[in-house]
Amino acid sequence: MITRLSTMFLRTLREDPADAEVPSHKLLVRAGYVRRAAPGVYTWLPLGLKVLRKVETVVREEMNAMGGQELSFPALLPREPYETTNRWNEYGAELFRLQDRRGVDMLLGPTHEEMFTSVVKDLYSSYKDFPVTLYQIQTKYRDEARPRAGVLRGREFIMKDSYSFDMSDAGLEESYQRHRAAYQRIFDRLGLEYVICAATSGAMGGSASEEFLAVSETGEDTFVRSTEGEYAANVEAVVTQPGVERPIEGQPDAVVHETPDSETIETLVNWANDAGVTVEGRAVMAADTLKCIVVKVTEAGAEPELTGVLVPGDREVDMKRLEASLEPATVELASEEDFAKSDFLVKGYVGPVGLAKNGVRVLADPRVVSGTSWITGADEKNRHVVGLVTGRDFTPDGFIEAAEVKEGDPAPEGLGTLTLARGIEIGHIFQLGRKYTEAFDVQILDENGKRAVPTMGSYGVGVSRLVAALAEQYHDEKGLNWPIEVAPFPVHVVIANKDEIAREAAEKLAADLDAAGIEVLIDDRPKVSPGVKFKDAELLGMPLAAILGRSFSDGVIELRQRGGETLEVPAAEIVERIIALVRN
Ligand code: ATP
Ligand code: MG
């Protein structure tokens, strides 16, 4: 079929949408691929839907090839299964909950572990039926706190989710590796630049877990790579090398000092150096101070609980790392009100001793080990304490990964240092284990006629997000620039010559390409100038544009490769040349 711009349902926009910050969002709206229906909820217009369907096709083909079987669950789900796993509560505000006309609770599925586990329990009972991998490509709902960047982070979005069921841990490992390989094929075929990162498994529980991140400045995830070796990890999953323990014996006593107006780490370090305080004979640095941040942690269904988080003073607390460490509990900084409510919380002078004395849980960075000595708040206005020794003057209730990871930090296993970059999470695979099969009491008869619980893997691809991730990686200042595999049309034929002969030749070219099985978009708009047509062609971003313009009278068709060279092709060779480029 040939698609005509003269009749296609499309309006391109000259202006960026007011709410758009990242290039993919601006361009997908301006080029008429998607349109906002509500915050985080988008309509797919004809061009956008074509890209989405092509991405879906790649995902489906590779999932089928790796042995997955497709099915489709509803998005509208009953409460009970999510009650069984406690996610009805744990999911918190992100879960869309609703009631039917009888007042029965329902939800819009954010992910479907519960449904897959139940259906396997219902239908299978013998080890002979395993392993099995099931998947769907389906609409998910999450009331995201910060929907962002159009379809990149929607409240309604399309995910491929699959689940493997195995009778043994070795089987799970194999299913996991097969998914990993399938994901590599999917993202390779789509032409994405991506990194496979070690990940935390978050609300899902479970152990081994990796994320696929499309490399992009505008991504919300930060990942690290080591300068030597293969190590790559989401910053949320970076494990801090513990500090070196020191003997406590012989360390000088902690001394409280007057430190007027030293509420920041910088002013505190300046005070210490002006006051002649030294650490092992050298000047005091930010890393010798201990930052004490007060947060509120809320477990599902419980009241918020004050918690102190200790990190070396040369680092900020990274809220995303802190959140990941505490999931499924949620966390926020203590407010002015919280400070006002508790006399012992003195802004700028909070220390671990005062917190512990008042029954507040204190969690420390892994560098805060026994025998380390710190300059920190003395819990009174204008006072700090020097020489506060861990394990002698205070003892944290536990350790926590909350400090920011910095460029140049040591990589694990001595593999050089870490470099930081940003990415968009496009896929996530993890070994879930028996959390869900146990919750649903899935009992399968094994080879010896004994009951056994199968182990699961859970694997997601952000299908609609991939459209945005591709647009992030494939665009320039003029517009989109799709890889052939996902372009709505590989070829855009532009009639840019008033001559009737040019029009006829363009129609024939489109018909010939169509006959060869190549999808064609033809710009046959009668009263639109060549300049506007060229601009639109660049904005829409088909990989090849065949221009029948001025040089057509000399028998030449211009073949513009979006973002690349322009070839002058004799009219007689154009079909052949295009076919070769599309099928290469
Ligand atoms: P994120 O950290 O980006 O919120 P997640 O950890 O919540 O992602 P998963 O629950 O693992 O994501 O979902 C699987 C995949 O679905 C993700 O890798 C991502 O590609 C996609 N995805 C998740 N949330 C959204 C969303 N709000 N909009 C679009 N795609 C999403
Ligand atoms: Mg999320």
TrEMBL record:
> Its principal location?
cytoplasm
Q: What does this protein do?
A: Catalyzes the attachment of proline to tRNA(Pro) in a two-step reaction: proline is first activated by ATP to form Pro-AMP and then transferred to the acceptor end of tRNA(Pro). As ProRS can inadvertently accommodate and process non-cognate amino acids such as alanine and cysteine, to avoid such errors it has two additional distinct editing activities against alanine. One activity is designated as 'pretransfer' editing and involves the tRNA(Pro)-independent hydrolysis of activated Ala-AMP.
Q: What is known of its domains?
A: Consists of three domains: the N-terminal catalytic domain, the editing domain and the C-terminal anticodon-binding domain.
Has UniProt tagged this entry with the keyword Isomerase? no
Top EC class per UniProt?
ligase
Family indicated by similarity: Belongs to the class-II aminoacyl-tRNA synthetase family. ProS type 1 subfamily.
Q: Which residues form the Aminoacyl-transfer RNA synthetases class-II family profile domain?
A: 35-483
Q: Where in the cell is it found?
A: Cytoplasm
Note the InterPro entries from the entry.
aa-tRNA-synt_IIb (IPR002314), aa-tRNA-synth_II (IPR006195), aa-tRNA-synth_II/BPL/LPL (IPR045864), Anticodon-bd (IPR004154), Anticodon-bd_dom_sf (IPR036621), Pro-tRNA-ligase_IIa (IPR002316), Pro-tRNA-synth_IIa_bac-type (IPR004500), Pro-tRNA-Synthase_IIa_type1 (IPR023717)
Protein name as catalogued: Proline--tRNA ligase
Reaction(s) catalysed (UniProt annotation)? tRNA(Pro) + L-proline + ATP = L-prolyl-tRNA(Pro) + AMP + diphosphate
Q: Give a GO cellular-component term.
A: cytosol
Q: Superkingdom of this entry's organism? A: Bacteria
User: What is the organism of origin for this protein?
Assistant: Corynebacterium occultum
One term of GO molecular function: proline-tRNA ligase activity
